[in-house]
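Quick one, probably user error.
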């Protein structure tokens, strides 16, 4: 995508939507770790492209939304993010990604009820979007409404199994103590999760109970996902390992760190002085 957008702006250097597309694509690479080790470069390229788009046309909702997402997740300039998200939605109320990314921003700053509202708006606009379905699941996880998250995701499976975020469903089922269901979710997942992980997880759960289950989750998770690794170590009661992975995520400026304050998987860490210090360093309000 970035290659084609680069060609577009090379053909027409005044094509604002081309730069806006670049901002969106680079932001997606950063937010989803599509090029491990390049997160910082991708986030900064996204902002440069969004700024260029808005210099050419300051009415582009898409460019405001992409820049706002970067302000919130990478630069952690929450006031600037709020300003740009509101401008994007004012310019184009039916642009679903603006509502989706604004929902992410709102949970980062602890405004969960407003985050839920924006997630639901995004879903209403694009009910068959995988991104919008995932956002509703994550939102319910952070609100600790596990039954709702599970029910919603299972209904989505009946419509189209490809629009479900199986990682979210798996985590929520396990958080709710439904470990057998979580293992079954891995077996059924067409993507997100490797079905071959189901057998070792099942063995670990039978032999070691919940703590064995979470330790095995950490063991099976790629080192390129330090935030997820930290979640699993925290659930297993392995605080030092959890903080070590959070430090890696911090160095990489991982977009997921914004969920630290509301993520229930870190409840075991909140009484540790290192937790408050990390929240301060991240810059979360």
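Nope, works fine. Designed sequence:
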């Amino acid at each position: 995508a970035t290659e084609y957008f680069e060609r577009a702006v090379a053909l027409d250097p005044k094509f604002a939507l081309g730069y806006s597309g670049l901002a969106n694509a680079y932001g997606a690479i950063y937010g989803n770790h599509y090029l491990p080790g390049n997160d910082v470069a991708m986030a900064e390229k996204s902002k440069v492209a969004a700024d260029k788009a808005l210099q050419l046309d300051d009415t582009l909702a898409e460019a405001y939304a992409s820049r706002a997402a970067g302000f919130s997740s990478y630069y952690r300039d929450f006031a600037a993010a709020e300003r740009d998200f509101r401008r994007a939605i004012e310019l184009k109320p039916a642009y679903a990604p603006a509502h989706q990314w604004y929902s992410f921003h709102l949970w980062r700053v602890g405004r969960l009820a407003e985050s839920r509202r924006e997630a639901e708006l995004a879903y209403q606009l694009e009910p068959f979007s995988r991104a919008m379905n995932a956002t509703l699941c994550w939102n319910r996880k952070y609100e600790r409404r596990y039954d709702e998250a599970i029910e919603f995701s299972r209904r989505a499976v009946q419509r189209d199994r490809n629009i479900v975020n199986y990682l979210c469903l798996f985590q929520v089922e396990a958080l709710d103590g439904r470990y057998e269901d979580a293992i079954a979710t891995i077996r059924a997942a067409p993507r997100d999760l490797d079905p071959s992980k189901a057998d070792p997880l099942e063995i670990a759960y039978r032999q070691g109970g919940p703590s064995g289950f979470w330790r095995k989750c950490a063991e099976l998770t790629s080192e390129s996902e330090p935030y997820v690794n930290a979640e699993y170590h925290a659930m297993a009661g392995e605080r030092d390992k959890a903080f070590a992975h959070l430090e890696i995520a911090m160095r990489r400026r991982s977009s997921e760190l914004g969920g630290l304050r509301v993520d229930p998987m870190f409840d075991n860490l909140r009484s540790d002085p290192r937790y408050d210090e990390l929240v301060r360093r991240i810059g979360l309000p």
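The chain is about 70% helix and 0% strand.
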